[in-house]
TrEMBL record:
Transmembrane segments: none annotated. Pfam families: Peptidase_M3, Peptidase_M3_N. The keyword Iron does not apply. This is PepF/M3 family oligoendopeptidase. Gene3D superfamilies: 1.10.1370.30. Residues 112-177 form the Oligopeptidase F N-terminal domain. Residues 21-48 form a coiled coil. Keywords: Coiled coil, Hydrolase, Metal-binding, Metalloprotease, Protease, Zinc. Its cofactor is Zn(2+). Residues 195-572 form the Peptidase M3A/M3B catalytic domain. PANTHER family: CARBOXYPEPTIDASE 1, METAL-DEPENDENT CARBOXYPEPTIDASE. The keyword Zinc applies. Binds 1 zinc ion. It comes from Symbiobacterium terraclitae.
Amino acid sequence: MTAVLNETWDLDVFFRGGSSSPELLAQLDQVERDLADLMEEARNLTARPEDWVGFLDRLQGAVERFSEAASFVYCLMSQDVRDRQAVVLFGRVQQSAAAVRSINAVMEGRIKTFADDEWQALVSHPRLAPVAFALNESRRRAADQMETSRELLANDLAVDGYHAYETLYTTVVGRITIPFDGKELSVGQAYNRFSDPDRAVRQALFARWEEAWAKEADLIAHALNHLAGFRLGLYRHRGWQSVLKEPLELNRMRQETLEAMWSAVASARPALRRFLDRKARLIGAERLAWYDLDAPVNQATRNVSYDEAAAFIEEQFRQFSPRMADFAAHAFRSRWLEVEDRPHKAPGGYCTSFPRSKVSRIFMTFSGDPGGVSTIAHELGHAYHSSLMFDLPFLVQNYAMNVAETASTFAELIVSSAAIRSAASREEKVALLGGRLDNAVALLMNINARFLFETRFYERRAKGLLSVAELNALMEEAQREAYADGLGVYHPLFWASKGHFYGTDQPFYNFPYTFGFLFSAGVYARAMAEGPAFEERYAALLRDTGRMTTEELAQRHLGADLTRPEFWEDALSVVLDDVKEFLRLTAE
C-alpha cells in the first residue's frame, strides 16, 4: 500500500449528518412502524407454513434495518462520548430492541402451542428449511419461558430497568477523565498508556486510574447490583436454577464443554506463572503488578504507522488466504476502520456489522505498538467472518459470541506468528513472544478471574446487595486465584472499570473469549498442518457458526469432542510452546 490511509471511518455512507441525520431518524421511525405491524402479525400466526414464510421475510427485513441503525448509533457513541444526542438515539434503539424481543416472545408463545407433527411440517417446508436451526432453537427456548404476557411485561420493564443500567454505566464512563502528565486523558487514552515501557509512568498512572474509578464506585456498584438483581429475579420467575443457563444457551454450548475448558486452563496456570515470574525479573521487579501486565519486556520492537500495520496484515493474511487478504485491503481502502488516537473516544475496540449494506466497521485507538497491530487483525477477523455470512438468511447469520472469537483470534495468530518468525534479533523475538504471552495471560487468567468473580458475585447477590468494599474483596480474591497468586499488586476495582460486566445482551461476557482463543488455536494448528487446502474448510466452518451448536460445529469440521479435555489440552500446547521458547530465550 503506497497511499496514506485515512485513520477515521466513513459513517456518512450509511446516514449523513451523524446524530442529527434526517435519514437516520426516518429509518428509526420506519423500523418502529414495521415492528408494531409485525407484533400484530405474530399474535395471529398459525401452524400453516405459508403464514411463516411471509412473516419471517418481513421480520428479517425489519431486523436488518434496525441493526443497521443500531450499529450506526453505537458507532456515534464510541467515536465521541460527548455526543449526547447519540445517547438519546441509543434510548430509541433500546426501545426497538425491546420490540424485537417482544415479537420473539409472542412468536415463541405461538410456537409452543403447535403439535409435534405440525411443527415438523412447518420446518420441513422448502422456504423454511434453510432457517430450521433457528426455528428449532426458538421452540426449545419457548419451552423454558414464562407465559407470553408475563414475558412481554418483563421485556417492557427491562427497557427502563435492566437495560437502563448499561446506559447509566456508559454515561458514567463517558464523564471520567484521568489527570496525568498535564493532560486530562479519556479512559481509552489512559488505558493505552499501561503499555508504556517506563514502570514509574505505569505505576503513577495506575494510582490515578484507581482514584478515578473509586470516585464513581458507589454509583457503578448501584448499577451492577440492580442489573444483577433484575436478572436473578427474571430467572427465578422462569424457574431457572443456574445463572449460567442463559449464557450457555446464548453460546450454544453445554456445561460439560465449559467445565472441560476451565479444567484445562487451570492445568496451565503453573506454566503461565513461570512466564509471569520471568517477565518480572526482566523488567526489574520482584513480582509483577497489575499495571505491568501489558508492559513490554524490552524495547526491541519499534512502533509502526497505521499504513505499515495495514500492509503487514494484508501480506500475512495472503499467506493463508488470498480472499482474506483482498478483503482486508478493501476494508482499509474503504475506511471501515476508526483508529485515530484522539480525546473523547470510548475505550476498547470492537467490530460491528451493517447487515443491510453487507459491510462492517471497526473501532479502536491505534498507538503503533505490536499489540495495536494484533488488535486490528483481530477485528478484521470478525469482519471477515461476517462477510462470509451476509448472503445467508438473516436468521442464521446470528452466530454466538464464543465462536465469534474464532475468526478474530485466528487472524491475530496469523499476524503475531509472522511477526515472531520475521524478528530481526533475539531481543525482538523475546519482545514479540512476550506480547503474545501477555495476550494469553489476559485470555486464560484475566478472563478466568472475571468468570470466577461474576459466578461468586451472583451467588452472593442472590442474598442481598454488595458494597463497594465487598465487590473489591471478591474481585481481588478471583484475581489471586486466576493468576496463581503471581502478582504483587492487584486491581480490586476491575469490576468497575470493565464494561463487559454491564452488557445486558450478553450475560457472562467473559468465558466466550477464552473459548474463542483456544478453539481458534486448535483451528490454527489444523490450518498450519494442512496448508492452503484448509482455506475452504475454514470458510465453511465460519459459515456454519450460525446454524449449529458449538459441539456440532467442532465435530463436523474438526472431528473434535469439546466435552473432553483432550481438545483443550491440545489447543493449550500452542501457548505452552510459547512459554518454553520464551523461557529458553531469556535464560541467564
